[in-house]
Design brief:
This protein has 11 helices and 13 strands. By secondary structure, it is α/β, with parallel strands linked by helices.
Length: 333
């Protein structure tokens, strides 16, 4: 029996930063940002850490679905912006939510973090190790962004998506298939150079801005277009699904052009592609659960829908997951 998502929620900070914010002090324009990325605005968390994005999302989840947090036995946090290198953010979240009888850990897979964590959470449930997993995809990207670098500052935002993973009550619904990859050769194109054991923090690393996101955009773009489209088509083909069988593609939201290329290769009409990059930018591990949560709360996902989740990120990490949705239509929360 597969495991499945049984509750979903998200949180976005209230501070909206539109493209005109950057036009005031960077050599950029609203037109360039929209044409090259599709982003119009993003949310910045002014105070607090990644756990402060997760906690309100989790509290909303508990309230909306009448979940007793005491019943949750595992917390998994996908993030590249943990509150600390250690302790893990899962422990910080546990403490802030006052949860008991729970263990947990963080997963680092950048923009593929939610996919990797979803596969892990479902495997824990399917093996009987866990019964209820609080699965969180969250990043405070502003904590590692150089706001003076126009090549990266305009791309990212802060946000969190959380869901509950439990055993499905139907053998044909839940997480049906996955294709996940890593290739460390791509590490040179997208990384946080310093701050780890390879290059510990020093005055020099701070002066050289090596704690911020480093990205060779063009090389990441080329790899992402191919990687995301390849796995998305592969997961359709090996499950004998045509474009008509797919209710939604939920792509990682890094660039509208990457999303369109993936949807085109899958033969999907635009209405079958979840896109909110224009409102929130790239929130790294949070983009996919935020999309799912938004669409579900608007009553747009039905029980039995085939949904392909697809992502690409630093590592390189990439992959696709086929979900058959197993929650009833609830309309607006
Ligand atoms: N405003 C105006 N010009 C900008 C700019 C900005 N915000 N950012 C970069 N430019 C300039 C560059 O300096 C360059 O100028 P030049 O031609 O004089 O050298 C020009 O625009 C083209 O830069 P380039 O990097 O080739 O642009 P691009 O079309 O590749 O778009 C990205 C840049 C970052 C939007 C794009 O490469 C991208 O989305 N990459 C993948 C991101 C991703 O998927 N990440 C993985 C998950 S995090």
């Amino acid at each position: 029996m597969p495991a499945t998502i049984t509750a979903i929620s998200h949180f976005l900070p209230s501070d909206i930063i539109d493209n005109s914010y950057f036009e005031k002090y960077l050599d950029t324009s609203d037109e360039w940002i929209i044409a090259r990325t599709g982003i119009k605005e993003r949310r910045f968390l002014k105070e607090g850490a990644t756990s402060d994005l997760i906690v309100p999302a989790a509290q909303k989840l508990f309230k909306d679905y009448n979940i007793n947090p005491e019943e949750i036995d595992t917390i998994i946090v996908a993030t590249v912006t943990p509150d600390h290198m250690f302790p893990n953010t899962a422990a910080v979240v546990q403490h802030k939510l006052g949860m008991k009888n729970v263990w947990g850990f963080d997963i680092s897979a950048a923009c593929s973090g939610f996919l990797f964590a979803l596969r892990t959470a479902c495997s824990l449930v399917e093996s009987g190790t866990s019964k209820k997993v609080l699965l969180c995809g969250a990043d405070k990207m502003t904590s590692i962004m150089d706001l003076n670098d126009r090549a990266t500052a305009v791309l990212f935002g802060d946000g969190a998506g959380v869901c509950l993973i439990e055993m499905s009550d139907d053998p044909n619904m839940g997480l049906i298939d996955h294709i996940l990859h890593i290739d460390g050769d791509g590490g040179r194109y997208l990384k946080q150079i310093a701050g780890g054991s390879f290059k510990p923090a020093s005055h020099e690393t701070v002066d050289n801005k090596e704690h911020y996101i480093f990205q060779d955009g063009q090389n990441v773009f080329k790899a992402a277009v191919k990687g995301m489209a390849d796995v998305s088509v592969e997961i359709m083909e090996r499950n004998n699904l045509t474009h008509e069988d797919i209710a939604y593609l939920v792509p990682h939201q890094a660039n509208l052009r990457i999303i369109s290329a993936t949807a085109d290769r899958m033969g999907l009409n635009p209405e079958k592609v979840m896109i909110n990059i224009q409102k929130f930018g790239n929130t790294t591990a949070a983009t996919i659960p935020i999309c799912l949560s938004e669409w579900y709360s608007q009553g747009k996902i039905k029980k039995g829908d085939n949904i392909v989740l697809s992502g690409f990120g630093a590592g390189f990490t990439w992959g696709a997951i086929l979900l058959r949705w197993n929650m009833n239509q609830r309309g607006l929360i």
